[in-house]
Amino acid sequence: MIEYREGNDLDLDAVIDVYRASTLGERRPIEDRHRMAAMLANANLVVTAWDGALLAGIARALTDASWVTYLSDLAVRQSHQRRGIGKELIRRIQQAAGPQAALLLLAAPAAESYYPHLGFTHHPQAWMLRRPPPPLPSNRPPEAPVRRRRRPPARGRPPTWSRGARPSRRCSTSSGSTR
Q: What CATH number should be reported for the domain holding residue 76?
């Protein structure tokens, strides 16, 4: 029997394993543990499906619980698909987000035909700014930071200082303390 739980205090290895076993791992940074941990920790609505001690599915969302809920991930192990687990995860996300919050998602190419039978409608007005690709590794050593020099003062004007090179405004008093 499948047990459903809410919360994001989960074992990261179990989460990565369910992403990998559902094929969602092909489109998520599962090799970057730090990033996966941040994705999980910063989601404010997470519902999981458990088959005994095995994490069988996960729904990870961001919501304001009033207007919109973005379902960022829905992953169910391939071995557990076609049992209604994904549908129940979505139902529980909707229930936790509240009756007024719309549910929004970006479908994986292989799952586009799944969502219409759950009541989702396609919206061509959606737009997305994609992340830039990560920089390619460079064989050059990093360049040293450029240090600015103080410009000589113009006649009758106080000196100008480069950023970070301005002298301290503290003054010492006759007792040796600073203000």
A: 3.40.630.30
